[in-house]
Amino acid sequence: IAVYQGNMAMMRRNNGTMVKMLKELLQQPTRSAGLSSRLTNGSIVASFQELYSSHFSTSSKITDQEAARSPTKGIATSGQKDMGDQSNGSRSMSTNAPSRASAFRDKLDKGPGLDDFILSSGDAGYSVYAPKPKERMRKPDWLKREVPGGAEYTRIKSKLRELKLSTVCEEARCPNIGECWGGGEDASATATIMLMGDTCTRGCRFCAVKTSRAPPPLDPDEPENTAKAVAAWGIDYVVLTSVDRDDLDDFGAEHIAKTIKGLKNHTDGRLLVEALVPDFQGRKDCVQQIVDSGLDVFAHNIETVERLQGAVRDRRAGWDQSMSVLRMAKDMGARVTKSSIMLGCGETPEEVLATMRTLRENGVDVVTLGQYMRPTKKHMAVSEYVTPEAFEQYKKEAENMGFLYCASGAMVRSSYRAGELFLANHLGHKQQDTAVHASS
Fold first, then answer.
1. pTM of this prediction?
2. Which residues have a Cβ under 8 Å from the Cβ of 236 and sit 6 or more positions away?
3. Whole-angstrom Cα distance, residue 438 to residue 436?
4. I need a surface site. Which of 95, 134, 258, 389 has the fewest CB within 10 A?
5. What is the per-residue pLDDT across 240-261, written as a single tens digit (0 to 9) for each?
6. What is the C-alpha radius of gyration for the chain, rounded to an integer number of angstroms?
7. How far is CA 379 from CA 223, 275, 414, in A?
């Protein structure tokens, strides 16, 4: 009892000192190599090493002194004597307890310290802690974005209102909307148009789109109206996406194909079209309609690693089904195939790399990796925030695997302007090569 009370007193004093030291560290962040303001591992380790050496080195003396002064010493000894008589010669607690405490302190001294824990994952680390739903904590600096604006952004937004187009950029509150709509001197702006309404028949745990077993019927004029509106918009690259419509006989494949054909016709084939399509429940004829429509990039997202498919996606989606759709599209002649992986859902780095390898084995040309961000409190929680350094490493691994292109970053989404610009250049060169060969 005496040793226990002494240990508790020592722990309270040390814990109070640690909390005070942490607050001082958090109030004095450092800056390094142009990165966002945040604590460096070196400053944390150095500070805690000093703290440990100044306080825990005296823990043995504190415990022994307080145990000697404890008024319960006599009670403990008396109780131990009675217990010793009853147990027929067992050791007394007053002799055994201090030895156990000393042994435990020796074990702590010889074991790994705080610096080993912090530095075990490298200078930057793989990820940082994601707060629980009821915790209030600021997100990492690399997840911040500037408020969108500018002349080009304003022009596009007003044009969308005029043409009555619905974009995923706005519906999903994409963090890259300013970058994509802002365009640049050497690049046109891009946007993602959502087809077949705003209500999905599936309920994935990460998605903010409304769900229903019986969504409203399709608008038969949508393909033609969308094609005319986008052609009038005057962009060079468009991404089409849609909700899942398991209530339809062909899952909406014909509707999407008509829109793609209309876009090509109204722009004389100039417009490059990427279609992020559903899995069509693995139906080969539906995939064939999309490939034959004349699109330039066939995209379908695997979303997460194989182990987490059931926890992240709707039960009607699946690993094998999505992989087969991507494989079918490539075998049917799709010029470029593309897929996307969310990080921060509970996956491991080994599982991410295995997923990338499987995608490549199934003919996928382009892969994007981004941070999962919880849209509302009703959706799946974020397990961790992956660091920019880890995303950069994934990009290098993707290039080594032979992907045509990889967009990897916390704010990267499946329809990402940087990737679209690369694909536009790549597809443009392929068209020029085809024309040269035809003329020769």
1. 0.66
2. 188, 270, 271, 272, 424
3. 5
4. 134
5. 999 899 999 999 999 999 999 9
6. 30
7. 32, 26, 19
Please provide the DSSP assignment of 208-250 as one string. -SEE-SSPPPP-TTHHHHHHHHHHHHT-SEEEEEE---TTSTT
Strand-pair partners of 340: 368
CA distance 197 to 246: 13
Contact 387, 127 (CB under 8 A): yes
- Structure token digits, residue 110: 């010889």
Task: Give the list of residues 6+ apart from residue 56 with CB closer than 8 angstroms, or none.
Answer: 14, 108
Contact 279, 173 (CB under 8 A): no
CB 180 within 8 A of CB 169: yes
User: Are the CB atoms for 211 and 176 separated by under 8 Å?
Assistant: no
Do 312 and 355 touch, CB atoms closer than 8 A?
Answer: no
CA 2 to CA 73: how far, in whole Å?
6
Q: State the Cα–Cα distance between residues 202 and 257, nearest whole angstrom.
A: 21
Spatial distance between the Cα atoms of 92 and 115, rounded to a whole number of angstroms: 39
CB 66 within 8 Å of CB 12: no
Alpha helices, DSSP H, located in 28-139: 41-55, 59-69, 73-86, 93-110, 114-119
Q: pLDDT tens digits, residue range 101-143?
A: 777 677 666 665 544 433 344 456 788 777 776 777 777 777 7
**For the ranges 116-120, 143-147, 292-296, the one whose mean pLDDT is highest:** 292-296
Residues 6+ apart with CB under 8 A from 364: 326, 330, 337, 338, 339, 403
- Name the one residue in this structure whose structure tokens are 């010493």: 73
Q: At what angle do helices 253-266 and 284-291 cross, to 10 degrees?
A: 10
The pair of three-digit structure tokens given for residue 259, joined into one six-digit string: 């829109």
